[in-house]
Amino acid sequence: MCGIVGITRKRGGVISEIKKALKKLEYRGYDSSGIAIVNGNSIFVIKGVGTIDEVLSDVKLEDGTTGIGHTRWATHGGVTDDNAHPHTSCDNKVALVHNGTLDDFHYLRNKLRERGHVFRSETDTEVVAHLIEDKVRSGMDRLRAFYESIAPLSGSYAIAAVFAGSNEIFLARNKSPLVIGLGEGENYCASDITALLHLTNRFIFLDDGEVAVISPDEVRVWRLVGQEVIPVEKEVKEVSWSPSLIDKGSYPHFMLKEIYEQPHVLRQIADNVEYYLKFSQILAESIETGRRISFVAAGTSYHASLVGKYLFSKRLKAQSDSIVASEFLEWGDFIGVDDLVIPISQSGETADVLEAVRRAKDLGAKVISIVNVPGSTLTRLSDETVYMMAGPEIGVAATKTYLAELAVIYSVVKLAESYIEGRSPNPEEVRKTIMEVSRVVESNLPFMDEVSVKLSESISKKRDVYYLGRGINYPTSLEGALKLKEISYIHAEGYPAGEYKHGPLALIEEGVPAIVLMPVNPDLQSKIIYNLMEVKSRGAMTIAVTPEELELEDVTVIKVRWDRPTEELSPLVYIVPLQLLAYRTAVKLGRDPDKPRNLAKSVTVE
Q1: Distance of CA 214 to the CA centre of its chain
Q2: For the chain, which domains are there?
């Protein structure tokens, strides 16, 4: 995905504000960046390969009042100066930025070339600038030229365009996020509310098929219907997130800050347990009436859904499915009317999740989503939304939102269990449990971090790392492996410990790290100890995350100090040292954990 920002105001100063806002969106892409500033009857553009600080460090221009900016994650066209956004028309009177992918741009490009247009880039985006220019040449006003250029596009797009001689920003959205921020004598647009929190907490969320024009004094929105537009009244929503939540403070990286914020996130969920009663009741009713239940998620959220599937089986005696969102269109045809689909998404903008939800709704399913970002597309597609209350997460590798997802799922399951058993749910009991986990995580963080720093010395020199878990901690092994490969670029894999002898054991050789998640359940402990000894006998470097009371010989242990450990809550605690180990290993290798190569925070294109 890419990051888009636009600001139009009566007073000057947009360049510094656009740069500041873009910095907050750099998690969305950071291979190139650029800005376009309306400067009287011309448009000033500076762009190139590199981060915002590298490209925009020394902008020599008297500041303007209207401009757009972009930070790129390359899709169409390589990482080059010409392919960086903004893109302009032949006459440089139109400039625009784009997030998404256009399906038909080769055809449009050829038609425009036949009409004399000259292209400077390989991107799909540049086509739109020339389409608009072509319409203006024919005598159309700016608005009509803009929306008639958008109408024939297929694919996904969030577009912000400016015209020379105008203080308006023209916007369009289809399957890519775009929000409008409201100010006094100024208005804004961005891909994400986090970019604008230092400017406003009042937002309008554009829906698919809508176009808008913002100026310092006015916001107008229309729905695009064929070649015409119909005015739309939009609700203004206030977001309670504080700008301080998107500041690193004294931490060297957002990822470390967000790992250390996890006890606070758990307390936030504990303090609001009653909020999950409605979801719990709907879940209980779906189980009692025999409706199918399916999780849909991607990446880290998919691992959380596997924990949910386990808890549904163990606590609620209910069968459920966990479907990778990108596979849902192939695997989800069994979904029926009134079945329950539970998408899980930090951003609420992941393209595959949104497509899965659209398909589920077409099949008649009820959709209750677990989401972090308020006002995101998933919240508007869903019948009900449950917020995970983690606050903004900037690090590309999810940490605090994973723990939040687990805590929300656990809370919902415990409350639903009471409904199923005919008892009144006891939110206070759930609150105490989550608060206890918060205390355990907080008290263990310094020790876990200390051990992770030491282990990173060895792990950073390895080519492969394997994670083994059983039962509810099999998903923890997957998530631990994902964290390491995401940010350190070391090959890592998670496996069910009992499955390891069915092939992967052949990969174990002298010195290869095997990280084992020891169950709390004594019966499972004996089984996984056997797996541990099996890899150790073949020369593996063995590391175990264990309850404090468990003793293991000749194994490096990360002991969790926990008075009353339980199997069902162990994933909330065991994942923390694995997050820290991944972080410390990445830093040891000189990687930037907040900006891993080739990755963005959420994938908003399919």
Answers
A1: 27
A2: 3-245 (3.60.20.10), 254-588 (3.40.50.10490)
